[in-house]
Model the fold of this input.
Amino acid sequence: MEKKFAPLKNDRLLRAARGEKVDRPPMWVMRQAGRYLPEYHEAKGKHDFFECCRSPEIASTLTLQPIDRYDGLIDAAIIFSDILVIPQAMGMDVKMVDGIGPKFPDPLRSPSDKQYQEIVKKKVDVAKELDYVYKAITMTRNKLAGRVPLYGFCGAPWTLLCYMVEGGGTKLFREAKTWVYKYSEESKVMLRKISEICVEHLALQVVAGAQIIQVFDSWAGELSPISFKEFALPELRYISENLPKRLREMGEEVVPMVVFAKGAWYALDELCDSGYNVVGLDWLHDPAEAVRTARGRVTLQGNADPGVLYGEHTAITSVVENMVRGFGGGQERWIVNLGHGITPGVNPDNLKFFFEEVHRCTGAKKAE
Ligand code: 1CP
Done:
């Protein structure tokens, strides 16, 4: 597949991520390709979710849908894939059940299980197992033809461990808490194993054409500040230290790195020193306070409550105005986003209105 890509026409987001001056804050939203878009359901058709991830043709089509729909309004694409491709690459079976979410028929129950021993010892051939992700990225870069940069991503080790031991979504985190509090050392061994695979997966995404990467620690907020420091933060740091090393080893340029630790408001100061260029904020942060804590060390990304998109235009305007004011009128190091992924059932026109309001409030010219 052709890997000599067209020059990037809009580098606003990459510049902002590195802390360089931009004409206006760049913008995208987490989960921008997905269930709220009617064209997503149309293109997905009867295909199973992971089948879509494994088909470079379908994955690249889905990635481009929000770029086409919101042409000129958003500044980045994110590859259509999932954080759970890593447990799959490690040999675990994961299914996506329509209307429910991910399901592992055989989750990790205890370190004495044969499965635990096997997974910890197994040498994963990431390039082979996840080759379809890299093909999808290369095809997407070619289809984007330099319109906007492309995010690669992975799940953070703590969040992936949660899914691997719970076997799916959970409210109680009973199994995950059992692991960290009862089998602390074995948890750390597994977390490090996951981190190593994350580094390789992110590096290979960059080789394939990803221009910035994001690590999603969606369940960070389930840990206490002390447990976060013990189980989650060291792995986030492992990734930010080792990815650039691995990229240099491969003769690749180092790309900006984003960390999004949802719910870990207590760790913002440490996250700003954890080796990432960008720190994602959920909507529980007050932007002005986060800007004060960050002290220009990183670019902040976020953080409107995705729920506002269920509201009227007046509510969207008010949330955008407050957010823009909090981020210094757009003068601070900032990538505009929601505080978490966009949710199903949102009217896509409300997202368009959100984008237009951000443009209005940050002084951008109306897109033609
Ligand atoms: O535009 C995009 O962002 C699309 C790419 C993408 C990304 C970045 C998808 C497609 N998933 C993800 C990351 C992801 N997957 C996260 C981290 C971000 C977050 O916190 O939202 C997590 C936790 C998952 C796991 C997952 N995959 C869930 C959550 C279940 C739970 O426990 O609450 C679900 C429902 C999925 C399925 C999924 N992944 C992506 C899409 C579009 C869908 C919906 C599939 C469908 O029903 O059609």
